[in-house]
Amino acid sequence: MQIEVFKSKIHRAKVTQAELHYVGSITLDETLMEASNILEHEKVQIVNVNNGERFDTYVIKGERDSGTVCLNGPAARKAQVGDIIIVVAYATMDFEAAKSHQPKIIFPDNNNRLA
Q1: Is this model's pTM higher than 0.85 or not?
Q2: Which is the catalytic residue, given 58, 66, 90, 100?
Q3: pLDDT 10s per residue in the chain (115 long)?
Q4: Active-site hit among 22, 25, 66, 90
Q5: Which domains does the chain have, with CATH numbers?
Q6: 58 catalytic, yes or no?
Q7: What kind and span of H or E run contains 7?
Q8: Annotation marks residue 25 as catalytic
Q9: Which among 3, 12, 19 is positioned nearest to 98, based on CA atoms?
């Protein structure tokens, strides 16, 4: 049996940009992506702490160490610059493997940097 489990999370990142006239997605600082084990083009769920919005999109790699967290396209309507969001990725795995799986969680600072 396969189940979907929580794989990775960027907990409480600050939105730095919102670009409405773009194809769509979320652009993330490459350092945050690597630290949280999230890949470019991976599907993620965005949870906006400020307004309660929840939506799915995919990740585009942003400039390393830039602190970039940019919502693009229609997603730009779901958050404002300065909003705090949580980025969550999930994985499908075997039920038995899921029992020992440990998700990767990172906690960026107010500038989307890691300590």
Answers
A1: yes
A2: 58
A3: 999 999 999 999 999 999 999 987 999 999 999 999 999 999 999 999 999 999 999 999 999 999 999 999 999 999 999 999 999 999 999 999 999 999 999 999 999 999 8
A4: 25
A5: 2-98 (2.40.40.20)
A6: yes
A7: strand 2-14
A8: yes
A9: 3
